[in-house]
Model the fold of this input.
Amino acid sequence: MRDINSAAELQRALTYPLVRPDDPDYAAAVSCFNLATKHEPDVVVFPTNGREVVAAVNWARDRALPIAVQATGHGHAETMYGGMLINTSRMQEVQIKPIDRTATVGAGVKWKSVHERSAMHGLFGLSGSTGDVGVVGYTLGGGLPVLGRAYGFAADRVRECELVTVDGGLHTVNAESDPELFELLRGGKGNLGIVTSMTFDLLPIGALMAGGIMYPGADAAEVLSAFSEWTAALPLQASASVALLRVPDMPGVPMPLRKQFVAHLRFACECTTEEADALLAPMRAVSNPIMDTVTSTTMLELDAVHMDPQDPLPFEDAGMLLREFGPEAQAALLQQVGAGTNTPLLMAEVRLMGGALAHSTAVAVRGSTSGHDAITGRDAAFSLMAVGALTPTDAPNVRGALERLLEAMEPYGNGYTMVNFRGRLNGVTSHLHSWSPAVRARLARAKAHYDPGDLMHYGDSALA
Done:
């Protein structure tokens, strides 16, 4: 452990007590939603605003302490040994401006907090499959929303970030103040600094139909084939994915589904009941569905579509982007995770991309060198994401299963993966880049400028 005996001066700059390994609150301070990540920093701080983050960064930099940041710990982050962990969970500012249709949130805010406050104004942000995820980390990685085909990536809607750089600077970053940095923050997630707050657009989401259709896993081949054909003509206001699920026996899971292998169609569309029924008719005619939960709903209830776990658990995940999902790709997927494969993976999901996801909604800004952002996934037809729970029984086999799945699907991929879904399989997925060579080069140059000592080397980086 490094010498941090002079922490008293740092404590005077903080609202909440800092935590060290011998403190009783240490385990809670470093815990993640993904229990497979077990950080072991020398010190944990809980800033409540940008000024306190500046004080923490200055203190750590002066002692050459590595710095990592955590809000909710949903991602499978690189484990931190030593250094300073900046836990942003106390940064809970949520400011809704209904006339401007914007929200400004602190670095620790989760999507469900935004929806609860914006719903009274009929406005919502572009959240993903669960409202339990932190807004800032999700958005810095691009942010793939449930309604992404209609409205694009969450990062497309960012207006401004407050950023603390390793030199202790507190910056307001937007398209006018620093267009190059503003572009790289949106999708780059490259450890260029610590985003302490973010302002983004809210949208007036109209009538919403969403839910899922469950099919017997034995009919997965038929479901995948129908899904591929059906999505080819799906309108932009509709988003869909299909997952092969081995449903665990756990609270919150409907009894008929527990311990079952199923194919799960996930669907969300800004439309009327009649329009949704017409769109879903071809898929409802496939196989003999076990359960159909598609109904009129709201953004506040959108978590029910994907049914992500609500309680912390240890897991490993990985993903890639696909350029096609034809018969050969479907067969390759089934060979790895279909019926009778005895795979330890809980889920493998193929999600339809395209629509508004394919085009940046941001306006080109003065001073930018290329593009409008650092988001990967614009040219993908589908995304693939797989998850395995690290239970005592399955843990030894999960990583190998993920590696074999990615290798089997590589012929149908576009060579990239979204940074939020790439997992930790860097050895086998080194060819699945999170950014194009041009974007990686821009991120690397910015990293060398803003963090020349690479103190923020944990987590997702263009240099990894």
In short: The radius of gyration is 22 Å. The first strand starts at residue 43 and ends at 45. Residues 8 and 43 are 12 Å apart (CA to CA). Residues 363-370 have pLDDT under 50 and may be disordered.
